[in-house]
Amino acid sequence: MATLYVGNLEWNTTDKELESFFAGVDVTSVQILKDKETGRSKGFGFVVVEVDDVQDVITAYDGKELRGRTLKINEAREKGNRTDRSRGAYPR
Fold first, then answer.
1. In the chain, N or C terminus with fewer CB closer than 10 Å?
2. Contact indicator for 1, 50 with CB cutoff of 8 Å
C-alpha cells in the first residue's frame, strides 16, 4: 500500500473523478483537500493505492491530464519529512 500526492487538480474535480482517473489501479481511498472556511478545493489530494511498485504507478500517471490540467503525482511524504519550501516557512 502507498499514498500518492496528486497536485494541480482543477478546482471542481471530485473524489469519484480522481478515483476513475486511476483506472486499472487498485484504489483504496481518495481525498481531495478542501479549505475549512470556504469548502473550496485546495487543488491537491491524496490517493491510497494497493500496488507492488508505486514508482510504476507514478511513471504511468504523472503528467497526464484530468479536466484539462496536467497532474503532478508523486509518493506522499509524512508531515515531518517535508522540506522548508512550504508556504509560510522561514529559512533558518
1. C
2. yes
